[in-house]
């Protein structure tokens, strides 16, 4: 049995991680105090929970993770005290401080099959179906429909239009009532669409996984419980749109800093040219990398200097 160790860093990372562990407990039938009921049917009747949880001597299941900010939460009895690491340090919503000083030692470079080159490492996450409980009563989406939804901007976690870019690789994980035949048919249909383009050197970059356990929802959440769902990670040149927006916002912020020299003290000792300018110069390179991969500026979602004011 393989083991997954999760490390959640920063305020947003810890909050998202805490929500993930709540969902893991619901999926495997583990209570907030770490106890699993004797009825094994709740957890699926197997020991798959060992991938994320370690069983202690008293029958308590604790996450195999390093996490904090859960000591006073609902699931405070779930985590083992010896696996809690406490520290202090705040970036004060300053990206340069978190990236270049406090967070520099915990930044890790990794390679996956979604990343063809080291500098092209910004996957786009998509989930479908995003549907409310009221709407779920009247319709159940098929495998083809949720697959098509993954390529729509409304289902993406980053605001960009994938129709303006080219895909390098796609990794899809299906859950629930899904069979390989339907998945292969849905992907074959996707490849025939002209609105979804792949780079010339990677025409069939799909990797697919199927988990027959239906997705679980958090009680009181906004998402409805559905029979099937899919999560996709893709590497597309369209994400250059996000960098162009960030480029424009940085220019506006940096102009204000230059006009108000006294705000430089908020950088906590760093010189302006030491971190902010260095990071600013990386944005055009990130966009340029997408243009080179896509072989066409018009299809990569790149916005020129003249159009940046429209972002």
UniProtKB/TrEMBL annotation:
One Pfam family this sequence matches: Tubulin
Alphabetically ordered keywords of this record: Cytoplasm, Cytoskeleton, GTP-binding, Hydrolase, Microtubule, Nucleotide-binding
GO terms (BP aspect): microtubule-based process
Catalytic reaction list: GTP + H2O = GDP + phosphate + H(+)
CC cofactor: Mg(2+)
SUPFAM superfamilies xref list: Tubulin C-terminal domain-like, Tubulin nucleotide-binding domain-like
MF terms (GO), sorted A to Z: GTP binding; hydrolase activity; structural constituent of cytoskeleton
Protein localization: Cytoplasm, Cytoskeleton
Domain spans labelled Tubulin/FtsZ 2-layer sandwich: 110-248
One cellular-component annotation, GO: microtubule
SMART domains reported in the protein's UniProt record: Tubulin_C (SM00865)
UniProt family annotation: Belongs to the tubulin family.
Protein name (Swiss-Prot/TrEMBL): Tubulin/FtsZ 2-layer sandwich domain-containing protein
